[in-house]
């Protein structure tokens, strides 16, 4: 990237130059690329030229520039940690949001879902059926549960991720398969871990708050001679969920890292991550179930969650639990050969455990509308996932025939193995009075498997024997891939970004009813190519306008058997679901580099979505279409005023949802889905977020945040939904001295009742109520 003379570096310097290059005026962009680009350019061009730039410099006059700037006055450019981004984010033709450490800290985020709340266009799904409890993220309307990466390597296994060892969170929007292989059309999330630094520091945080909130973190870094360092991050956390008295739990984690060769050409980073958690998971609130017709039409609900007390909990304290454990070890080796050539090899082994019993307040048989009861359906899982991955890549820069290349090529190998079972209860969890999950009554006579809609007792004396089911599912997935990325700079104004990846995906499933029974087997052996291409025009050194195209592929069994997209006999012979995305966008770094702005128009299409075909089989015949607009901003308006946020508009349509059986099971009759043209579930049309803070002086800082999410449908029928909501948060911090500071956070200031998790048509997760925490941050 050519340096912008108007943007000084973070250090003072003197630079002599005979000829100053004149940046192309922004108005030329519309002439070259059409009215659509002009519209995007006008969104940011006033601020882009606010600093004056070089537009008044006579290029014939020799110039000597003397520039000095305090570090606090200059915002370092936002960067990605991934080697696969072969250009700065400013010149990358893709929507990428980076949640930095400052935003994570100021908003008092303590989990990945907390951090993602500040990014519009992302919703969180709830567990149900085959969808396990854990991070269940939807990006631009598509399920990205398996599209989470740690330092660029896929992080398989269902889990709820912490932030105590994270430097930043990178959200890549749009098809992500060229970067990471199998993935959804929505995008992916890369978690950047903290690493050892060549300086000594000791940081700690101690927090207390409402709802039994207690949190302790530590971050210790020590140099080992002049070329190595050790870093240790630790965390212990305990809290209930505000407004949900029974829900809560505790967790602890430790993450040591040692780095050798910090100043030499060869570097080795050895790291380990462990986290253990124990909690009572949330049951959520059932929907007012709308009956379409028949004798129950008078009982029709409006499709929103039931209007019950916020604290209503349908689970059972004596039964419900969730225990998780994650262990990840990584060896990252790099060697710089000089001449801009770097070889890197990363090997990672990981193991995750996710065991739970949680109560889903099931309304599928009409209990809520007919009897004012719910069936306490016990969703259970006993899961162990092991992963082993190795990535070798070569990064470099070269110039051929006057054209500059910045490239990254590599190969990836991975193996994932998941063993999954469930729990059995003696006696069972059905209503003994009916022998089913129909609940005309509730209470002791139903063995507490049925509960009233209003005022259920989570402490009902439910006493059963629990054991692991002999039925088990084993899934093994092997992948290998080759990829290449190149940013080609024809001139300082014109760049072409290219990327391609080939994946071979092999997954096998064995399902056994017991240790002595024959296994039911399913297998997928497939390979697929994915691509991305983007043309970037830079009207000035601090801005870019781009047009891009990218694809993604989601094969059957994408989630390695631990999620909703599990492999089955019915889908094993299907092709990967492929999506394509067209995007037109612009990015600017303005106000002397302090503020980053971006805007994008995009359209994603999936023409071979997996749905039920006219003959009742599963086939790749469905269609989905999504159009959207995205605006984002990050940085500082002044040295004291920080902002972070954005806005997203999504128009997500199920163009062809396949066929439904309108006959009977014995005599099926398939007709086109009546839901064609409906909105994707879990996709708000409008969403917006803002976090802003202001340093009133060197000691006192205050901030406020806002999150708005439009109505979100829970099903393709579009007759159950969570209403729109706006939530406000606040922060104030005071620096006592160089070693001690205090931060007060109030979440959900207005105690807004809202629903922030749903992917099931049965219930919606209740968002946390108002809570407060006070944290002492220590440096020593």
Automatic annotation (TrEMBL):
Domain TonB-dependent receptor plug: 89-187
Top-level taxon: Bacteria
Main subcellular location of this protein, as a coarse class: membrane
Localization per Swiss-Prot or TrEMBL: Cell outer membrane
Motif (TonB C-terminal box): 763-780
Residues in TonB-dependent receptor-like beta-barrel domain copies: 287-749
Record has Membrane as a keyword: yes
UniProt entry keywords in alphabetical sequence: Cell outer membrane, Ion transport, Iron, Iron transport, Membrane, Receptor, Signal, TonB box, Transmembrane, Transmembrane beta strand, Transport
Cell inner membrane in keyword set: no
InterPro entries named among the record's database cross-references: Beta-barrel_TonB (IPR000531), Beta-barrel_TonB_sf (IPR036942), Plug_dom (IPR012910), Plug_dom_sf (IPR037066), TonB-dep_rcpt-like (IPR039426), TonB_rcpt_CS (IPR010917), TonB_sidphr_rcpt (IPR010105)
Topological type in the membrane: Multi-pass membrane protein
Family recorded in the similarity comment: Belongs to the TonB-dependent receptor family.
Protein name: TonB-dependent receptor
């Amino acid at each position: 990237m050519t340096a912008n003379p108007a943007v000084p570096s973070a250090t003072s310097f003197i630079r002599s130059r005979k000829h100053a290059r004149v940046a192309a005026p922004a108005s030329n962009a519309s002439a070259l690329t059409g009215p659509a680009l002009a519209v995007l350019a006008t969104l940011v061009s006033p601020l882009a030229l606010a600093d004056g730039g070089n537009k008044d410099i006579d290029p014939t006059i020799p110039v000597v520039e003397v520039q000095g700037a305090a570090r606090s006055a200059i915002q370092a450019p936002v960067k990605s940690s991934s080697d696969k981004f072969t250009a700065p984010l400013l010149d990358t033709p893709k929507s990428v949001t980076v949640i930095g450490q400052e935003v994570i800290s100021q908003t008092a985020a303590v989990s990945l879902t907390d951090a993602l709340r500040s990014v519009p266009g992302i919703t969180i799904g709830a567990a149900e059926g085959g969808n396990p409890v854990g991070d269940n993220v939807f990006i631009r309307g598509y399920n990205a549960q398996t599209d989470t990466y740690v330092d660029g390597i896929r992080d398989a296994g269902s889990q709820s991720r912490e932030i105590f060892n994270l430097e930043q969170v990178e959200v890549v929007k749009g098809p992500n398969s060229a970067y990471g292989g199998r993935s959804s059309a929505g995008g992916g999330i890369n978690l950047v871990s903290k690493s050892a630094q060549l300086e000594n520091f000791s940081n700690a945080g101690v927090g207390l708050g409402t709802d039994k909130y207690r949190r302790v973190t530590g971050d210790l870094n020590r140099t080992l001679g002049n070329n190595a360092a050790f870093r240790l991050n630790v965390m212990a956390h305990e809290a209930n969920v505000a407004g949900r008295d029974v829900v809560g739990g505790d967790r602890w984690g430790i993450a040591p890292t040692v780095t050798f060769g910090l100043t030499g050409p060869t570097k080795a980073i050895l790291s380990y991550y462990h986290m253990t958690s124990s909690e009572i998971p949330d049951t959520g609130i059932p929907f007012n179930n709308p009956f379409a017709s028949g004798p129950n039409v008078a009982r029709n609900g409006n499709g929103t969650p039931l209007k019950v007390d916020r604290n209503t909990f349908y689970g059972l304290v004596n039964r419900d639990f969730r225990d998780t454990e994650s262990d990840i070890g990584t060896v990252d080796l790099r060697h710089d050969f000089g001449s801009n050539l770097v070889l890197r090899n990363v090997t990672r082994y990981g193991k995750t455990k996710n065991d739970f019993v949680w109560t889903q307040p099931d309304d599928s048989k009409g209990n809520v509308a007919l009897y004012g009861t719910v069936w306490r359906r016990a969703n259970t899982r006993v899961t162990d996932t092991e992963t082993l991955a190795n990535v070798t890549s070569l990064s470099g820069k070269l110039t051929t025939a006057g054209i500059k290349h910045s490239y990254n090529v590599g190969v990836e190998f991975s193996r994932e193995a998941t063993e999954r079972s469930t729990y059995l209860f003696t006696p069972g969890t059905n209503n003994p009075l009916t022998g089913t999950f129909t609940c005309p009554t509730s209470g002791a006579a139903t063995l507490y498997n049925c509960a009233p809609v209003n005022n259920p007792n989570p402490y009902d004396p439910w006493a059963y024997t629990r054991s692991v089911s002999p039925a088990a599912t084993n899934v093994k997935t092997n992948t290998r891939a080759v990829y290449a990325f190149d940013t080609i700079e024809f001139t300082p104004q014109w760049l072409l970004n290219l990327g391609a990846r080939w994946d071979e995906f092999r997954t096998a499933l064995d399902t056994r009813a017991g240790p002595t029974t024959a296994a039911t087997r399913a297998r997928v052996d497939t390979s697929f190519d994915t691509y991305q291409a983007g043309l970037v025009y830079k009207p000035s050194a601090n801005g870019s306008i781009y047009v891009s195209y990218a694809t993604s592929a989601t094969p059957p069994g994408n989630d390695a058997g631990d999620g909703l997209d599990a492999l089955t006999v019915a889908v094993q012979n299907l092709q990967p679901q492929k999506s394509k995305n067209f995007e037109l966008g612009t990015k600017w770094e303005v106000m002397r580099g302090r503020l980053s702005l971006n805007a994008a128009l995009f359209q994603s299409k999936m023409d071979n979505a997996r749905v039920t075909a006219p003959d009742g089989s599963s086939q790749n015949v469905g269609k989905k279409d999504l159009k959207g607009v995205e605006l984002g901003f990050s940085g500082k308006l002044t040295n004291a005023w920080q902002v972070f946020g954005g806005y997203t508009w999504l128009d997500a349509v199920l163009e062809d949802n396949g066929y439904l059986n309108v006959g009977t099971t014995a005599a099926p009759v398939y007709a086109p889905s009546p839901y064609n043209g409906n909105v994707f579930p879990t996709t708000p049309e409008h969403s917006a977020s803002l976090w802003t803070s202001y340093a009133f002086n060197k000691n006192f800082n205050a901030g406020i945040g806002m999150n708005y999410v439009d109505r979100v449908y829970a099903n393709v029928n579009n007759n159950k939904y969570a209403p729109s909501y706006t939530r406000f948060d606040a922060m104030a911090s005071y620096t006592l001295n160089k070693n001690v500071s205090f931060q007060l956070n109030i979440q959900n200031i207005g105690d807004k009742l809202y629903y922030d998790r749903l992917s099931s048509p049965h219930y919606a997760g209740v968002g946390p109520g108002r809570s407060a925490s006070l944290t002492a941050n220590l440096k020593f």
